[in-house]
Design goal:
The protein is mainly alpha-helical and 86 residues long. It has one domain: Winged helix-like DNA-binding domain superfamily/Winged helix DNA-binding domain (Arc Repressor Mutant, subunit A, Orthogonal Bundle). The chain is built from 4 helices and 2 strands. Strands 1-2 form a two-stranded antiparallel sheet. It starts with 6 loop residues before the first helix and ends with a helix.
Amino acid sequence: MANVLPKWLMKRYSKLWDKFKEKGFAYCQASELLNENNEKRMNVIISSLRKEGWLRSEKNSEDRRKKIYYLKPPEDAIKEIAGGRK
């Protein structure tokens, strides 16, 4: 279930969504797009998006050490957020 994202994280999600939509992408592609050279910060971004329910990952079939990331469509996340509120 998706949660509301803080502004700093929503900005990064928006950039990723504009580029990749529902297509899979690699860590290095996200890092390059976000112009994030600091590995610790990039790990926080990926981890936070996953924890908040806006991103999922799968093992790369070509290289099991790497992951492919997929974003949840914003309309699906908003429906989940709205449905979870009382």
